[in-house]
Amino acid sequence: MTGDAELDHLRLARSEGVGPVAYRRLLRRYRSAAAALAALPELARAGGRSGAPQTPSRDAAERERDQLASLGGRFLVVDTPGYPELLGLLEDAPPVLAVLGDAQVLHTRAVALVGGRNGSANGRRIAEELADALARAGLAVVSGLARGIDAAAHAGALAAGPEAGRTIAVVAGGLDVPYPPEHADLQRRIAECGAVVAEMPLGTQPQARHFPRRNRIIAGLALGVVVIEAAPRSGSLITARLAQEYGREVFAVPGSPLDPRSRGSNDLIRQGAHLAETAADVLDNLPDHPARGPLTPRGGSAGFSEPEGWSDPPEPAAALGNARELVIEMLGPSPTSVDDLVRRCQFSAPAILTVLLELELAGRVETLPGNRVALIAGPSRPTAN
Questions:
Q1: Cα angle vertex 316, ends 311, 322, to 5°?
Q2: pLDDT truncated to tens, each residue of the chain (385 aa)?
Q3: CATH second-level architecture of 100-283?
Q4: 235 exposure class (CB count in 10 Å sphere: 0-12, 13-18, 19+)
Q5: CA distance 275 to 369
Q6: Looking at the DSSP assignment, which residues form a beta bridge with residue 141?
Q7: DSSP 105
Q8: How many CB atoms lie within 10 A of CB 78?
Q9: Distance (Å, rounded) from C-alpha 262 to C-alpha 115?
Q10: Is-contact 86 223, C-beta < 8 A?
Q11: How far is CA 202 from the centre of its chain?
C-alpha cells in the first residue's frame, strides 16, 4: 500500500460515524478509501444528517502517522498484507491498528490470559506460571496490560526469556498513553520483545467505553482465551463471550467457591469451558484454526469482494426512501439481526445495507457485534469510531 493510500485509509477510519463494520461496507462498495471519503457527505445527508461528517485532513493523518513512526511504530490496515489474519476474520475488526514492537508476533499462534484487576496472590502466580509455560511452548500470550491478572500474564511470558517470551499487550487508549501509568515500563519491555497494539488514535485517554472494544481485539488475536479469577459481569467475561462468538476456545481456571473473584470463571466451566489447571490443559485443547471460517467476504486486489447483488449505482432513490422509512420503523434500541431485518423488510439486501450505512453515518443507527443493529435513542449523534 502506498503512503497516500494508507493516509486515505487512516482518514476514513478516523471519520465521524465510521465504525469498523461501516468502514468495510464503504470499501466493498467504493473500492478505495479515497472514493469512500468522497461519498461520505452524500451518504450522511441521505441518512438524515444536516451536515457532512467530520473527516481528518490529510495533514492531520500525516501528522499522526509521523508521530507514531517517531515512537517506532507503524499502522496495519485490515484486509491488507501484514494485518493479523485471525483478527481480520472478525466482521468488526479494527480498520487500522497502531503497533509498537515486532508486528510479526501478531501472526504467531496465540492464547489470551485475562482476569480481574484485583487478582489474588495465588491467581497472579497461576497467571505467571501459565504464561511462562505457554510462551516456552511457542505461543504468544495476549492480554490487556491491566493491573492484576493481565500484568501477571505479561510478566510470566517475559520471564520465559528473549527467545520465547513473546507477549502482546492490547491497550484501550493511544499507544503513547500507558494505562495504568505504573505499567509504562512494562509496556516498554513488551514492545522490545513482543508487540503493543491499539485501535484508538494517539493521545487518547482510556475511557470505560474503550475497554469492550479492546476486549474484542484480545479475543480476536487468540485461538483461545483463558480466564483466571473473573467476578460476575467482569470485563474478562465479555472477552470470553466474544471469544465464543468468534469460534475460539474458552478455558477457565477453577477457583474457590468462597471467593467472589472466581464465581465468573467457575460459571464458565459449568457452561462448558475447558477446565485449565496447567499449560497442558490448554495445549491439548487448542486448535490450529478457529472453529469456523471467515466472518466477512474477502478477496480482490484490495481485500474486498462485492456482495452478490450489490449494485453501483445503488437502488433507485424512491426505493431507498421507502426502505429507509421501513428500517427506521422496525428498529429500536434493542439490537436486531441484519439478516432478520432483510427478511422482514422485503427489500433487497443491497437496499437494506445501503440504508443502514446511511443511517450509521448520520448517527441514527449503531452497528453491533454479531451482525446486529440498533436505533440510537435521543438526538442524532455519531457512533463511536
A1: 115
A2: 778 999 999 999 999 999 999 999 999 999 999 999 999 999 999 898 888 899 999 999 999 999 999 999 999 999 999 999 999 999 899 999 999 999 999 999 999 999 999 999 999 999 999 999 999 999 999 999 999 999 999 999 999 987 777 999 999 999 999 999 999 999 999 999 999 999 999 999 999 889 999 999 999 999 999 999 999 989 999 999 999 999 999 999 999 999 999 999 999 999 999 999 999 999 999 998 887 544 443 333 233 333 444 444 455 666 678 888 889 899 999 999 888 898 888 788 888 888 999 999 999 998 887 778 999 875 444 333 3
A3: 3-Layer(aba) Sandwich (3.40)
A4: buried
A5: 27
A6: 111, 167
A7: G
A8: 23
A9: 10
A10: yes
A11: 17
Helix (H, G, I), strand (E, B) or coil at 131: helix
Strand partners, 111: 141, 224
| CB distance 112 to 142 below 8 Å | yes
How far is residue 122's CA from residue 102's CA, in Å, rounded to a whole number? 31
In angstroms, the CA 243 to CA 228 distance is: 15
Q: Measuring CA to CA, which residue among 116, 158, 157, 101 is closest to residue 134? A: 157
CB 261 within 8 Å of CB 118: yes
Q: What angle do CA 72, 73, 77 make, to 5 degrees?
A: 160
CA distance 383 to 338: 17
Rounded Cα distance between 85 and 107, Å, is: 7
Tell me the CA distances in angstroms from 41 to 52, 144, 174, 293, one per residue in order. 5, 36, 28, 35
C-alpha cell at 246: 468468534
Give the count of beta carbons closer than 10 Å to the beta carbon of residue 305.
Answer: 13
184-193 vs 149-159: helix crossing angle, rounded to 10: 40
What are the cell numbers at 210? 474503550
Please give the torsion angle defined by the CA atoms of residues 201, 74, 11 and 219, in that order, rounded to the nearest 10 degrees.
Answer: -60
Instruction: Domain 317-373: state its class.
Output: mainly alpha
What is the b/e burial string over 14-50, where b = at least 16 CB atoms within 10 angstroms of the residue's CB? bbbbbbbbbbbbbbbbbbbbbebbeebeebbbbbebe
Q: Domain residue spans in the chain?
A: 3-72, 100-283, 317-373
Q: Which residues contact 10 (CB under 8 A, 6 or more apart)?
A: 56, 61, 64, 65, 75, 96
In eight-state DSSP terms, residue 201 is P
